[in-house]
Design goal:
Oligomer: single chain
Number of helices: 8
Strand content: 5-15%
Structural class: alpha/beta
Shape: globular
Radius of gyration: 19 Å
Helix content: 25-40%
């Protein structure tokens, strides 16, 4: 537990280093992947340029109180909230809690760099693919001076052969066994204080808007406005994920997208040959986006219930 507390303290220290550029903690997925920074260049479709990850100085854990090394009361308070979040979410193991915190810390650090870049007068790139763009020839919706936003997908990936498994786990009516994953509530709250809008999307039907908004509020994510900051795109016919992303990008500079399946980032991944799907993610011109605008992370809301045999009524 002392090692986990030290990790949480280090993450909070990186998040709250006021006025400095936050250190990027790489996501671990079979090996460390250094985060890359996407900034607009003179050419609107310039290829994203990598930026070296900064390794933070180690923070020694103090016996009995790992937060004692933090310089400010605010940093200590956030570290304690992160620890409480990890405990309250009751993940399968301490390692999974640490992995979730590490992943969301990587997201926070990346977005903070974009905030700092804009404040410094640098151009910042949206990560929403423009209409007609391909994975091999990506183009992005222009950011201009639009306010920052992050898109979060709420749907848990389908399991096995049941394509509707994600809808059998929670609906958001207050009766669901759900929890926020470690780090998500605190990270979104911190980014809102930086002026970054969090927008949640789901393939559920719009009839579940009010219930889903109430569920998110109950978990501590704050208030959401159906159709604006909470977009449920199901229905007959459903709205495509790309259409939602481009609609949001028309009003916001979407500097990051968070999801747990490739289709949460572009419909193109699900439209091609399934056999080429792995190569599409790693061997095309969008590969540099992983960890640098596109974040394959645990969903902010995770069901702790066993999937039902029938679809819930929405």
């Amino acid at each position: 537990m002392s090692r986990l507390r030290a990790l949480l303290t280090l993450g909070a220290a990186g998040l709250l280093c006021g006025g400095c550029v936050a250190a990027a903690i790489p996501i671990v997925a079979g090996g460390s992947i250094a985060g890359k920074r996407l900034l607009g260049r003179d050419e609107p479709d310039a290829e994203p340029q990598p930026v070296a990850a900064v390794t933070p100085a180690p923070v020694a854990a103090t016996p009995g109180d790992a937060t004692a090394t933090l310089a400010t009361p605010e940093a200590r308070a956030l570290a304690l909230r992160l620890q409480a979040s990890a405990a309250a979410s009751a993940p399968a193991s301490a390692e999974s809690a640490a992995a979730s915190l590490q992943a969301y810390q990587s997201l926070w650090a990346y977005v903070e760099r974009q905030v700092a870049a804009r404040k410094a007068g640098e151009a910042v790139r949206s990560v929403v693919l423009a209409e007609g763009a391909t994975l091999d020839a990506p183009r992005y919706v222009p950011c201009d001076a639009k306010p920052f936003a992050i898109l979060f997908d709420l749907d848990e990936s389908a399991v096995g052969s049941d394509p509707d498994a994600r809808f059998r786990r929670w609906i958001g009516d207050g009766s669901d066994a759900v929890s926020a994953v470690p780090g998500a509530v605190e990270g979104i709250d911190a980014l809102r204080r930086e002026g970054v809008q969090a927008i949640f999307t789901s393939a559920r039907r719009p009839s579940g808007n009010n219930a889903a908004a109430a569920m998110l509020g109950k978990l501590g994510f704050g208030e959401f406005v159906p159709g604006k900051t909470l977009i449920l795109r199901g229905g007959e016919p459903p709205i495509s994920g790309d259409q939602v992303r481009r609609t949001v990008a028309a009003s916001y500079c979407v500097v990051a997208i968070v999801g747990d399946a490739l289709g949460d980032f572009s419909d193109t991944f699900d439209a091609g040959d399934a056999a080429r799907r792995p190569a599409a993610a790693t061997e095309t011109m969008v590969a540099p986006l992983w960890g640098a605008g596109w974040f394959l992370l645990p969903n902010p809301v995770r069901s702790t219930a066993t999937p039902t045999t029938e679809l819930p009524k929405e």
